[in-house]
C-alpha cells in the first residue's frame, strides 16, 4: 500500500446485487468510508493468495458475523483460501451466523450464475496461481424503454505479466481493468516480478478491442500515478487510472 492508495478491491453492482472482487487490507474501512451497503454482497471472488488481494477478507467476514448477517455467502478463490480462512476462524473461536460456501477455482470456466449475470474466470501469468474474472450480463428480455442493444461485460485482469492468451477471453468487453504495476521504462523489472506496465496493459486493450481501459495496481514506488494514464493513452486513448471511491459505468 501507499498513502491514500489502498490494496486491491472492487465492488461490482448490478440491479442491487453486489459482487466483491479481491479483498485487500482495509477493504471494509473503504466500504464504510464511501457509505456502501456491503451487507448486500452475495459473492466474493479472490484472484490469488498474495496478501494485498485477500488480507482484508477475514476482517470482513468477522464484521458480517458481528452484524448478525443471515444471508449465505459464496466465496471463490484458489486452493488454500478455504484452509486459511477456516484456520483464522478456528484460532479466534469464531462461529459465523451465516453459511459460508467456499468454491475452489481449479481451471478456467464459469464460476457463478445469478438471474442477470454470469461470472467466469481465466488464468493469468503471475508468480503463483492467479485468475482474472469476466462478468457478463445476461441477454434478458428488453423492457419497453430499454435502449440497450447488447448485454454489458466487464473483465478484471488481476496480477499478470504481458500475456496475449487472455485476449480471446476478454475480446470486445465494454470495460477492462488491467494491472499496470510499472511504467514502460521498467518493463524488464515488470516481467521478472510477473507484473505489467501501463503500455503493455494498453496493448492488450487495443488488441482485444475493448471499449475502455482502467489501470490499477500501481507500485508504491510512484508518488504520482498521472504518468501511467498518459503513457497508456499513447497506445489506447480510451484509458483512465482507476481511482479510489469512483464509480465506473459499464457500457
What's the quick description here?
By secondary structure, this protein is an alpha/beta fold.
Helix content bin: 10-25%
Task: Calculate the terminal CA-CA distance, rounded to whole Å.
Answer: 30 Å
> Can you say what the CATH homologous superfamily of the domain at 1-106 is?
Ribonuclease Z/Hydroxyacylglutathione hydrolase-like
Class by alpha and beta content: alpha/beta
CATH topology of the domain at 1-106: Metallo-beta-lactamase, Chain A
Number of helices: 7
| % residues in beta strands | 25-35%
- Main sheet properties: 7 strands, mixed
Average pLDDT, to the nearest integer?
A: 95
- Using only C-alpha atoms, the radius of gyration works out to 18 Å
**Biggest sheet strand line-up:** 6-7-8-9-10-11-12
Which architecture of the domain at 1-106 does the CATH hierarchy give at level 2?
4-Layer Sandwich
The arrangement of helices and strands along the chain is: EEHEHEHEEEEEHEHHEHE
Shape: globular
CATH class of the domain at 1-106: Alpha Beta
Q: Which regions contain 5 or more consecutive residues with pLDDT less than 50?
A: none
Amino acid at each position: 500500500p501507499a498513502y491514500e492508495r489502498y490494496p486491491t478491491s472492487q465492488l461490482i453492482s448490478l440491479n442491487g446485487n453486489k459482487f466483491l472482487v479481491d479483498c485487500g487490507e482495509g477493504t471494509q474501512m473503504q466500504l464504510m468510508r464511501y457509505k456502501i451497503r456491503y451487507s448486500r454482497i452475495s459473492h466474493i471472488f479472490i484472484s490469488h493468495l498474495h496478501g494485498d488481494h485477500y488480507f482484508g477478507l477475514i476482517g470482513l467476514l468477522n464484521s458480517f458475523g458481528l452484524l448478525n448477517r443471515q444471508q449465505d455467502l459464496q466465496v471463490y478463490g484458489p486452493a488454500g483460501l478455504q484452509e486459511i480462512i477456516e484456520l483464522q476462524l478456528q484460532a479466534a473461536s469464531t462461529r459465523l451466523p451465516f453459511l459460508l460456501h467456499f468454491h475452489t477455482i481449479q481451471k478456467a470456466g464459469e464460476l457463478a450464475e445469478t438471474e442477470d449475470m454470469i461470472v467466469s474466470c481465466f488464468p493469468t501469468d503471475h508468480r503463483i496461481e492467479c485468475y482474472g474474472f469476466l462478468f457478463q450480463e445476461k441477454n434478458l428480455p428488453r423492457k419497453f424503454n430499454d435502449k440497450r442493444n447488447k448485454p454489458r461485460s466487464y473483465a478484471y485482469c488481476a496480477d499478470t505479466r504481458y500475456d496475449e492468451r487472455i485476449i480471446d477471453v476478454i475480446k470486445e468487453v465494454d470495460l477492462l481493468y488491467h494491472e499496470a504495476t510499472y511504467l514502460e521504462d521498467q518493463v524488464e523489472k515488470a516481467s521478472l516480478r510477473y507484473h505489467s506496465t501501463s503500455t503493455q496493459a494498453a496493448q492488450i486493450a487495443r488488441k482485444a478491442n475493448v471499449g475502455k481501459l482502467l489501470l490499477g495496481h500501481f507500485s508504491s514506488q510512484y508518488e504520482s500515478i498521472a504518468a501511467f494514464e498518459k503513457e497508456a493513452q499513447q497506445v489506447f486513448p480510451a484509458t483512465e487510472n482507476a481511482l479510489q471511491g469512483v464509480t465506473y459505468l459499464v457500457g
